[in-house]
Specification:
By secondary structure, this protein is an alpha+beta fold. It is about 25% helix and about 25% strand. The strands form eight sheets. Strands 19, 21, 22, 24, 25 and 26 form a six-stranded mixed sheet that branches. A four-stranded parallel sheet has the order 6-5-7-8. It has a four-stranded antiparallel sheet with strand order 14-13-16-17, with no helix packed on it.
Length: about 625
């Protein structure tokens, strides 16, 4: 969190993703004690304390970072995640909490009145709520309802359009809503109703994620202070110690998942139905997920074994078994799939017994999850089968996971957080598409999104990774390079899809600015090294008091002067493709960056300590 602030990236970072050897379990004894005291004060003295065993996963604590660092232990509750796509009965009824919710309920109860002045009062008060929470779907839909009761078709249509843009996707429910009886035959209103997607009125609509979104009690967006929670999406890429998988298997898994992005894989989503409580816990929720997957054209199948047998087309799996031998099953997991198993020790990598969730990564899945302590057979602590629906609608793996787990504090999610097999990314054409030499003065970039496979709603413009501008779709961006220091910069233009998932596509333009004649150059003798080597780097600048050598934004070394040499241990950069950059520090001109230098650090992948597939006999 401190580093995000130091780099001036607050509000821009949506994901915090850990590599494969971080601690997976964090002990939160103090938070548990505080939570039980809080529940006792609320009259809930008989809550089984074992539900709140004080072992939290690193990914869940990162998701709940705001609450965790502020010592607010309510994140341990089973319905703590407001990004979870909850049942729709809450969608229109509980957009707020506390006194604000009491006020809201008083207002919407006026719908039962037969007096037009009550409808007008409700509209006035809802409009005030809407000023503080312009993105809240419930406000828009209730305003449409009250205008409908008045017979005001233009305003009922206006607010229904707003609700549609905010994610309202329940056409059948709208048609049967008696509040619209007086306006249902209006041509414009009827035309908007015809445009509403028909999704079963069961769960809140699938929604893309941003860290700066404030999630309300009904799972939609609020802006009002104290009426929305903010999160970070988080996964660990893999676990390569103890009973996880080895590094080579982890790298191969990531390579597979990267290639799966946007491929629209065709296969089958599998659900296992056995007498094991690990399976029966989620069986009641199979139907809702299967109905929506099949409505989108996907194949689904329920099998009566612990894991599918001889299934060669698995694009998603929900199962429940203490142990499995995937190799013996003869089944094949297709790239990009999320495979989930409800069992007690799937995320406890320090001990044997029960197959670990990382085994799904070994055999082809992009992601999986497991609990880091005995969770008991509670649906709230495991992904709801609807995870596959969110994923199939184009969400990333992490978005899909956190939309489907209402109480994730004991659950760790492993794999490629950004994997998006069913995403339809918008495309963007920018001219010029590259720059041959240094640039100065003003730059005019033409922007074209007409051929994008996904309609674009807005553009984001970044300089060196920092968001500088957000605009509607424009045909030209103007950049004054005199506002930038001389040296290397990265310009990034991001197109945001005009849908609730808000998939993005991007164009990255490296550029060297030369308005004042200043520069910094890095030189290395070669581009490939062993991880046991020292890398000699020469840096030459035209100004500045010192030069820093940086790797991924962190300072490796610093020396005074304009013509310096660094000796960098290759092991400090990590193995594989890496990038280093020099930055001259000038009291007068600020920072001047060199062009990045791409290197490859060679080193053998570790094999890992153990690699168990099946639990030992007790």
């Amino acid at each position: 969190m401190n580093e995000i602030q130091r780099r001036k990236l607050v509000g821009q970072i949506d994901y915090v993703v850990y590599s494969s050897d971080f601690p997976t379990t964090i002990i939160v004894n103090e938070h548990r004690t505080k939570l039980l005291e809080m529940l006792k004060e609320q009259g809930q003295e008989n809550v089984p304390p074992q539900l709140f065993n004080p072992n939290a996963s690193i990914t869940s604590l990162t998701f709940f970072a705001g609450a965790a660092v502020r010592e607010q232990p309510a994140y341990m509750l089973l319905e703590s995640n407001r990004y979870y796509r909850q049942a729709t009965q809450k969608l229109l009824r509980t957009p707020f909490s506390g006194e604000r919710q009491d006020e809201f309920e008083t207002v919407i109860d006026l719908i039962k009145s037969e007096r037009e002045e009550d409808y007008q009062e409700a509209i006035s008060r809802l409009s005030e709520f809407g000023k503080s929470n312009p993105a809240q779907l419930a406000i828009s839909y209730w305003l449409a309802k009250f205008y409908g009761k008045l017979g005001d078709a233009p305003n009922a249509t206006k607010w229904l359009i707003r609700a549609l843009r905010q994610g309202w996707c329940f056409q059948k429910h709208t048609r049967s809503d008696l509040a619209f009886e007086r306006v249902k035959d209006d041509p414009l209103f009827r035309g908007i109703v015809d445009r509403i997607p028909e999704v079963p009125f069961v769960f809140a609509p699938t929604h893309g994620f941003k860290n700066n979104y404030k999630w309300a009690a009904n799972g939609m967006l609020n802006n009002e202070r104290g009426q929305g929670d903010q999160y970070f999406l988080s996964t660990v890429l893999s676990v390569t110690r103890n009973y996880g998988i080895n590094e080579q298997q982890a790298v191969e898994q990531l390579q597979r998942s990267i290639k799966a992005d946007g491929t629209q894989p065709r296969g089958t989503f599998y659900f296992t139905d056995t007498k094991d409580v690990r399976s029966t816990t989620r069986k009641p929720n199979f139907a809702s997920a299967i109905t929506q997957l099949e409505a989108m054209g996907f194949e689904t199948k329920i099998v009566n074994s612990g894991v599918p047998v001889q299934a060669l087309d698995i694009v998603g799996l929900t199962c429940g078994t203490p142990g499995f031998d995937w190799a013996a099953s003869g089944s094949q997991i297709l790239p990009g799939a999320f495979c989930d198993n409800l069992t007690s020790f799937g995320g406890m990598f320090y001990r044997a017994g029960q197959t670990k969730c990382s085994q799904f990564l070994r055999y082809g899945a992009a992601g999986s999850s497991g609990t880091v302590v005995e969770p008991y057979a509670l649906q709230a602590k495991f992904p709801h089968p609807m995870i596959h629906v969110h994923y199939a609608r184009g969400c990333s793996l992490a978005e899909s996971f956190y939309q489907s787990v209402s109480g994730p504090f004991q659950t760790i999610v492993v794999g490629d957080a950004l994997c998006s097999p069913w995403a339809i990314e918008p495309t963007i054409e920018v001219a010029p598409s590259s720059f041959e030499g240094a640039v100065k003065g003003g730059l005019n970039l033409s922007v074209n999104v007409e051929s994008s496979p996904a309609k674009v709603s807005s553009l984001l413009f970044y300089v060196d990774g920092r968001l500088e501008q957000q605009t509607p779709v424009v045909s030209e961006l103007k950049i004054d390079t005199r506002e930038l220091s001389d040296g290397y910069h990265e310009l990034r233009i991001v197109a945001v899809a005009n849908n609730l998932v808000q998939t993005t596509g991007r164009v990255v333009l490296p550029v060297v600015v030369d308005n004042c004649g200043h520069s910094l150059e890095l030189q290395v003798k070669q581009t490939e090294y062993r991880n046991t080597d020292n890398i000699q780097v020469v840096a030459k600048s035209t100004l500045g008091e010192s030069i820093e050598l940086r790797h991924n934004g962190r300072t490796l070394m610093m020396q005074a002067g304009r013509d310096v040499e660094f000796s960098v241990p290759a092991a400090s950069l990590g193995r594989g493709p890496v990038q280093i950059q020099g930055v001259a520090i000038s009291a007068e001109s600020g920072e001047i960056a060199s062009s990045p230098v791409d290197l490859v650090i060679q080193g053998d992948l570790a094999e890992g300590l153990r690699n168990t597939e099946t639990p030992k006999k007790k």
